[in-house]
């Protein structure tokens, strides 16, 4: 949808911020530009909506040269979100969000209705509508920034380090929200960050740039983690590349064992029947099917197992929706080395040993990861 064709940006002082950059930004997906400070990410983003004009090359949107579009029409077809949200401090939240619809000539009532709808979409409580930006937290302001950019329903959203100024927990929430919005609305999003973890998490495709404004690699995140193009990309991806790559393999294929699982009211016969030599512990569940903890069979009192005397079961993973990385993490943190799998309702669906996960990892490495998106 957006084609960047041999684009160079040379600033008047001679700095080459972007050097013969060519890539196609796919429609209805999130494309992330990532790279060290000063590598030309912001310059590239701003050339798309012509806040900066390229020195050479062309940028085409749906086949049309952006330099031939009236700049106002172009900008209104693109939402723009920046770090610290850049809200109008003297306007209420609802009026901030309604800005572009009002510019487009919508009447006040319709623009405010739209703004209220968007507040819901980005997870803002309607009671915040009449507040001013300074009365909101950083994360809430950032949500307002996203809502404002979406207000006129533009097909393209440009986001320049939108979540960099908030703490890691709020940031994770904003990333999840963006992924949800993208799934619902199918926007074409171009996102700039210097954080490779953020790029790998939210990008459908990731453009890694190197200093001097050159493209080092343009690939889906799983492919970056599997086959970094060179030492620069490998270094930029950082440690734990192998472990992080496991996020792209579903845990759903792991074979689960249900034998070593007993309910808290299990009889002596049930305990005996479920005890096998290769499984030294049994997982005890409540009558609701949720995990209570691990116990050695000889320590379990038939009919009334005492949950307070069990070993912690650790955080379980969701078999149908989590990744191999999540399953491995559960097994590593489990006191027994066995991971507990649950369904969406939190009820135990089985258990799996570390060595079984290791085998699954070995076969996963032999196969290609799902390059479309991470299993979250
Ligand atoms: N107006 C300007 N005049 C001269 N040089 C500029 C100008 N704006 C940016 N630059 C330079 O162009 C290069 C690319 O800048 P740009 O802001 O695009 O990088 P970036 O990758 O977004 O960096 P950061 O992650 O630090 O925001 C840098 O070397 C920067 O100093």
Automatic annotation (TrEMBL):
List residues traversing the bilayer.
Answer: none
What keywords would UniProt list here?
ATP-binding, Nucleotide-binding, Transport
Q: Please state every residue range assigned to the domain named ABC transporter.
A: 2-237
**What Pfam families is this protein classified in?**
ABC_tran
Named from the GO MF annotations, one term is: ATP binding
Family listed: Belongs to the ABC transporter superfamily.
Database matches in PANTHER family: OSMOPROTECTANT IMPORT ATP-BINDING PROTEIN OSMV
Q: What is this protein's record name?
A: ABC transporter ATP-binding protein
What is the organism of origin for this protein?
Streptomyces hintoniae
